[in-house]
Amino acid sequence: MNKPATSVTATTVSPRTRSIAQITVLFLILILSIILLFANFAYLNTQSNYDKQYIGHAGELRVLSQRIAKNATEAATGKALAFKLLSDARNDFERRWGYLRQGDKSTGLPPAPPTVRDEMESVRRDWENLRKNTDTILASEQTVLSLHQVAATLAETVPQLQVEYEKVVEILLQSGAPANQVAVAQRQLLLAERILGSVNTVLAGDDAAAQAADAFGRDAGRFGQVLEGMLSGNAAIQVTRVEDADARARLAEIAELFQFVAGSVDEILETSPELFRVREAAGNIFSLSQTLLDEASHLANGFENLAGGRTLDTVGGYALGLLALASIILIGLVMVRTTNRQLRETAEKNERNQQAIMRLLDEIEELADGDLTVTVSVTEDFTGAIADSINYSVDQLRDLVATINHSAVQVAAAVQDTQNTARQLAKASEHQAEQISEASEAVGDMVESIDRVSAHAYESAKVAERSVAIANKGNEVVHNTINGMDNIREQIQDTAKRIKRLGESSQEIGDIVSLIDDIADQTNILALNAAIQASLAGEAGRGFAVVADEVQRLAERSSSATRQIEALVRTIQADTNEAVISMEQTTAEVVRGARLAQDAGVALAEIEGVSQNLADLIHSISDAAQLQTSSAGQISHTMAVIQQITAQTSAGSGATADSIRHLARMASEMRRSVSGFTLPPPAEPK
Known about the structure:
- The protein is mostly helical.
- The chain folds into three domains: about 1-135 and about 305-335; about 145-275, Alpha-catenin/vinculin-like (Four Helix Bundle (Hemerythrin (Met), subunit A)); about 385-675, Helix Hairpins.
- Helix content is about 90%, strand content about 0%.
- The chain has helices spanning about 1-75, 80-100, 115-140, 140-175, 180-205, 210-230, 245-305, 310-365, 365-370, 385-535, 540-675.
- α2 (about 80-100) packs antiparallel against α3, α4 (about 140-175) packs antiparallel against α5 (about 180-205) and α4 (about 140-175) packs antiparallel against α7 (about 245-305).
- It is found in: Cell membrane.
- Keywords: Cell membrane, Membrane, Methylation, Transducer, Transmembrane, Transmembrane helix.
């Protein structure tokens, strides 16, 4: 039986291995073709992007060639913005031309391929010539702009010269000036017109520009020489001096305007050759730009034709795609053939397994009825392992049923004991809950008492704080009183000093009054002597006697006034001394009052300190009472939690008793559930 089975296995393994090998080879061919296809696609895509960049740069070169020509022409006419645009276009052309010749590292663009070498060479020659002329224009930017600025200023100045000379001609005609002076002034108008025309011809840059520059120099020199002759006279050129004041004033204005024209002659003559070169370069650029446009167009066409030269790469991509498609089809055919063969083998194997399963089901039918004495037959089929496992499970199930029966008996006995214990625990929990409830009520009373103590302590603390505040305020009032008394004492002392100085001053006044009294006495004596001398002189001294009498009466009045002042001074001195004594007594009283106020301040400070200490002690008592209140509250909360836990324990004990009763019922049900199994008789002890 074993040998035929081995030969069948050998014949089925060989086609399977051959199919796997075929599929592996086809998969490798498919993967390789896909890789090559993607590589070819990436190459074509990269080259297409390069072609787009080449064509874009070539197209920009065509646009820039015309932009350079336009800006070069405008720059030659003196437009400042055109120089910047010309420089930007020139640099942009050079940059893009560099991308085509050397590639662009930023985008990975390589240099242009050799297939467009001829077109590149043609563009290079034309661009070098055009760039050289462009650089010539850019190098002369300042000269061109300066020359056109001078020309613009001349275009404004020369018409003003003509207007002023027309006024000079009118003045000369009205004043009856000589005819030759009027003719000279009229010729100056023509010279001014020729000067302006020469400047415009120079700026035009045509073939007559060089002659126009020379003519501008000659005409400007002749104009200045004649103008100077009309102001100062010049016999060499037969120009007489103009005498009319109005005409000379106009000529002076003309001379001031002509200074710019005279100063511009050398600049125009020196820079006109450079302007001619710029004009020539602009003309060359205009001619070369069309040629460069054509060459750039040929170059763009060459880049557009690059894609047509890659036909081989495109055909290779199609071939790789067909190869990948063929590989997929062959893989599908091989897999279908292999799948059909495996389906046939699986059907045969399922038939054999079905027969073995039916045999196994027939043998375990009695086991389904609870007969654990059954033993299943073990065969070579795939059900053999199942039969062996069933036999092992039946053995384990026998042991399990026996163990359940034994455990159910033991659980029933243990449940009875546990139920009794749970009942006792529930009664103890109820008693404990009652005790905890009484303790919680006692703690609540204690919390209320402590709260009242804390409230009284808090009120006492507020009273103590108000006492401290009042003592502090009284201390401040005493200090302010002391400071006020000190100020009063200082003011009284200053007043006493002033009164003393007043007494000293009154003493000095007394001395002065004594001196005046002495003078009055001497004057009285002198008046008496004068009266005596006047009486001795007779009639001659009568007038002097009258004066002597007046002097004597004046001396007597002075003496009387002096005695009155002396009496007042003595009164002032007496009052001053009394005021000084009164001030000193007042100062002493103020000092005593200040000392008493200081003593009161010290007493208030001590009261403030004692009140502060009392307030601190009361605060401490209040804080301690609040802390005790908090602790008592926590104890009350803890007792409540314990009471809840006890209640939960009591409830849990009841629930445990119920669970134990339920467990007893479950044990009984478990015994009834396993009673349907049939066990073999127990083995007899040996």
